[in-house]
Amino acid sequence: MTALLINEVFESIQGEGSFTGVPSIFVRLQGCPVGCPWCDTKHTWQVDEDKLLDSNVVMKQQQETENYFSATVEQLFALFAAQGYLAKHIVITGGEPCMFDLFEVTSEALRRNFTVQIETSGTFEIKCHDDTWITLSPKINMPGGYNVLPSSLMRADEIKHVVAMQKHVDELQELLATAQKPTTSLIYLQPVSMQKRATDFAIQTCIKNNWRLSLQTHKFIGIE
After folding, report:
1. Taking a C-beta distance cutoff of 8 angstroms, is the pair 169, 195 a contact?
2. FRET partner for 90 with CA separation of 20 to 30 A, picked from 8, 20, 38, 109?
3. What's the average model confidence in pLDDT over 77-81?
């Protein structure tokens, strides 16, 4: 059985992209070498064995930490039941979730009549059930030195790109131009840290390119 390293599990509302507003169970996996400077989950980057704790301890934490627990797919769904979660949409995020083989967990989610979504940087091969929704947030020219894989670009159901300036749009357009066949038409721009200047820029760029705007709705309403 595949064991996942999990930083946190919680139920909330998806605040970004195509599933904005959808009640969701978030499964945040531990580990990411990409190194995005603006990342708001830097506590998930390192996999330190000293931070591997019992799931009960991690689930009771009230703040972000580098602690994580290990769980099989069956244990994960048992945890959902124990927590009394009602949402039927699962978001697997990170960290970089595609460092793991996610075929087993996505297949089991679909078998149990959940919908399931993976949020990935596209820098690792995506291993999951074919009916999984893939949100590609391409991390281009990041300090970790990883490239967005062509296979990830073609697999994406939506592209959600963080922007602050024209350079970031240029990088996205250059990436899209490398595709060997048309990619998804669902392209979202998300202003970095919801800064006003970045938001104004994203709005104008979306209008210009007929793209979509993604805001971190959950932060506006003060939920995780």
Report:
1. no
2. 38
3. 98
Q: What is the pLDDT of residues 10-52, one digit of tens each?
A: 999 999 999 999 999 999 999 999 998 878 899 999 999 999 9
User: Which residues does residue 220 pair with via DSSP β-bridges, in sequence order?
Assistant: none
Walk across the sheet containing 115-120 and list its strands.
69-72, 3-13, 23-29, 89-93, 115-120, 133-136, 158-163, 187-191, 212-213
Q: How far is CA 153 from the centre of its chain?
A: 15
Helix (H) or strand (E) holding 69: strand 69-72
220, pLDDT greater than 70: no
DSSP notation for 116-180: EEEEE-SSS---S-TT-EEEE----S-TT-PPPPHHHHHH-SEEEEEESSHHHHHHHHHHHHT-S
Which of helix, strand or coil describes residue 91? strand
pLDDT at residue 223, rounded to an integer: 66
Query: Taking a C-beta distance cutoff of 8 angstroms, is the pair 28, 41 a contact?
Result: yes
Answer yes or no: is pLDDT of 224 > 70.
no
Structure tokens of 154? 């073609």
Close Cβ partners of 110 (under 8 Å, ≥ 6 residues apart):
116, 129, 131, 132
DSSP per-residue string spanning 13-48: E--SGGGTT-EEEEEEEP---S--TT-S-GGGS---
A 10 A CB-CB count for 58 gives: 19
**Which tokens belong to 211?**
């793209």
Question: For residue 2, what pLDDT is reported?
Answer: 76
Strands 158-163, 133-136: pairing kind? parallel
The distance between the two most distant Cα atoms of the chain, rounded to a whole number of Å, is 50
